[in-house]
Every structure is written in C-alpha cells, then in structure tokens.
Amino acid sequence: MDKKDDKRQRLIQAMLAQPDGADAAAFAEHHLLPWRTLAVHLSPLIGDSGFGALYGRTGRVLAARFNWLTVGPTAQTPEALFQILQQDLGRAEPPLAFEANAALLVTFTSLLSDLIGEALTTRLLDAAWTGALTQKNAGEQK
Fold first, then answer.
1. What is the pTM of this model?
2. What residue numbers bound the domain in which 102 lies?
3. Which residue has the higher pLDDT, 18 or 12?
C-alpha cells in the first residue's frame, strides 16, 4: 500500500469509527454517512448515473468476497442504493458489516482515483468527509 492509499484508508477508518454506545439503528445509519457525503460532492461532477455506475462496479469487484451484498441495477438514485446497502449491512454481524463497508469504500475510492486521479480524489474526500467528521466529533462530545 502506498502513501496515497494509506491516506484514503485513514480517512475511511475515521469516517467509519463507531461512536461509543451506539445502538443497531445508529450503527447502520453511521455506515451510510461516508456514502451520503461522498454522493453530495461527487454527483454534481459525474451525475447520479455516474455515481451509480461506479458504485455498481465496486459491488461487482467485491461480489465474490461479500456474496451477501446486493449487486443490483445501478440505474437508481444514490439514496436508493444506500437503502439497499443499509439493509444488507443491517443483516450482517457488526464486524462483518464494518469490514464489508470499509472494503466497499476502499474499492470505490480506488476506482475513482483511477478515473480522476489521486490528487483530485484526495481533495474530494477531504472536502466531503472533513466537514462530516467535524460534525460527527462535535456530536460525540455533547
């Protein structure tokens, strides 16, 4: 793993870090935060269909490893894709759900980097996730 991938890994781990005392519903919703913030920042650049295509490719790449994840039609809104992901992750044991979601995010961001370049991907992730991490951490400190 090179330094570029390492930075993405650290960002993903920070986004997926589970707050203490979270219940199952909060756990499932927490897994969607990185996806939702990423979609908000990425969809204006590549459109919902581009986001869906990239998300679908990510699912197909990981299909053998996580065959319980739904890999369906990608011509859906990001929110519809996230609802399916939330259902899939909700049916899995928490450690496996965490592992699958982290693998999805790593693969998605790696594919994105292959398409638009590492520098732009890193800036996009920083823009999307830094604000979300700040809000998440402020909520945990209350």
1. 0.85
2. 30-137
3. 12
